[in-house]
Design brief:
There is one protein chain. By secondary structure, this protein is of the alpha+beta class. It is built from one helix and six strands; from the N terminus they run H-E-E-E-E-E-E. The protein has a six-stranded mixed beta sheet with strand order 3-2-1-5-6-4, with no helix packed on it. Strand 1 and strand 2 form a beta hairpin.
Length: 141
C-alpha cells in the first residue's frame, strides 16, 4: 500500500519534468550561432569602392566603417544592403558575430537619396587605400 503513493508521486514528477526537457531541447535547436548588435547610422557616403558609414559609438562619439562593394557580391557575401522607406525607422547597421569574430553586416538605409543620412564624397577626394585589405569590420564603441 505504501508503494502506490510513492509510484504516483514519481509518475507526477516525471510528467512535470518532461515538458521542461522538451522546451530546453527546442530552445537549443533554435539558438543561432550568430550574435547581433544594432548600431545607429549617422551618415552613409557611397564611394566608387564601397560605402563609408559614420555610426554612433556612444552619446557624443562617432566611428567610421569602410564596407567594400566586394562584400555585397558572391555566394558567401559578408554584407547586405536593405533599403527602408519613410517612417519611424532610423537607418542602422546590424553587425553579426560568430564565435566572437566578425561574420557579416547588414545596412538598413533610406531608399530616398534625399534623406539626411545620405551624403556625398567630393570627386577630388581619394580614399581608395581605406578599402584595401579589409577582411573584417571593426566597430569601436
Amino acid at each position: 500500500m505504501k508503494k502506490l503513493p510513492l509510484f504516483t508521486l514519481l509518475g507526477l514528477v516525471a510528467l512535470c519534468t518532461m515538458p521542461m526537457a522538451a522546451q530546453q531541447k527546442i530552445a537549443a535547436e533554435n539558438e543561432s550561432e550568430l550574435y547581433c548588435t544594432n548600431i545607429p547610422i549617422q551618415k552613409v557616403y557611397p564611394y566608387k569602392k564601397g560605402y563609408v558609414v559614420i555610426y554612433r559609438s556612444g552619446a557624443n562619439h562617432t566611428g567610421t566603417a569602410y564596407i567594400p562593394f566586394e562584400w555585397f557580391r558572391g555566394d558567401v557575401a559578408k554584407a547586405e544592403l536593405v533599403r527602408i522607406g519613410y517612417g519611424k525607422t532610423w537607418p542602422c547597421m546590424s553587425v553579426f558575430y560568430k564565435e566572437g569574430a566578425f561574420h557579416s553586416v547588414r545596412l538598413y538605409v533610406s531608399r530616398y537619396n534625399a534623406h539626411e543620412t545620405w551624403g556625398s564624397i567630393p570627386s577630388n577626394v581619394n580614399i581608395d587605400d581605406r578599402f584595401e585589405g579589409i577582411e573584417a569590420l571593426e566597430i569601436h564603441y
